[in-house]
Every structure is written in structure tokens, then in C-alpha cells.
Task: inverse folding
């Protein structure tokens, strides 16, 4: 995929949400998420997309808004140490899953 990144390891959620939003079946070859190649323009595109999704999540139309806001508040109250630990542990699980998938472990 032309939009794949080498230096961006924090926006996987945005890529996932966009793919879920536009997927209509037919496999990867028919998937058109309309991402720009990795560059400053893609960073701006992702920033705009982040704003769009946050607005939708905080909309009064979102039936899960209360739960989402509570989760955000709980995360906001964590120390920077605990936030980093959550990020590191989730990243390690992702790496471990990839390593198992390719048969190294």
C-alpha cells in the first residue's frame, strides 16, 4: 500500500478506523482509504482525521460517549510513568504477536 509508514508508530488506530470506515469488501486491492504517502502532508491529513474522529466520539449522538469520556478522564489522571508503561506494554504485546505470527518463537 502506497501510504504505509516507516517512521510513524503512533497512528495505527487512525489507519485502522479509516480502513473500517471505507472498507466495502473485495480485499486489499479494492481498499481505497485515500491516504497520502508518508510525508508532512500525510501528518496534516492524520491530524485532520484525528479531529474528525474525536468530534464523532464526543458527539451527543454517540451512545458510548459517557464511557468514552470516563476512560479519557481516567487516562488523564494517570501519572506520566503509568501512561508510558501502558504504551510500552501494549507495544510489546504487538511485537510479540508479530514475532509469533512469522514463526520465530
Result:
Amino acid at each position: 500500500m502506497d501510504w504505509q509508514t516507516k517512521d510513524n508508530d503512533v497512528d495505527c488506530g487512525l489507519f485502522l478506523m479509516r480502513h473500517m470506515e471505507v472498507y466495502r469488501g473485495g480485499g486489499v486491492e479494492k481498499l481505497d482509504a485515500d491516504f497520502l504517502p508518508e510525508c508532512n502532508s500525510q501528518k496534516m491529513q492524520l491530524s485532520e482525521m484525528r479531529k474528525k474522529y474525536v468530534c464523532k466520539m464526543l458527539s451527543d449522538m454517540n451512545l458510548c460517549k459517557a464511557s468514552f469520556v470516563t476512560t479519557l478522564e481516567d487516562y488523564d489522571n494517570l501519572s506520566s510513568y503509568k501512561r508510558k508503561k501502558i504504551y510500552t506494554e501494549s507495544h510489546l504485546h504487538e511485537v510479540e504477536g508479530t514475532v509469533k505470527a512469522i514463526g520465530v518463537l
The two ends are 27 Å apart (CA to CA).
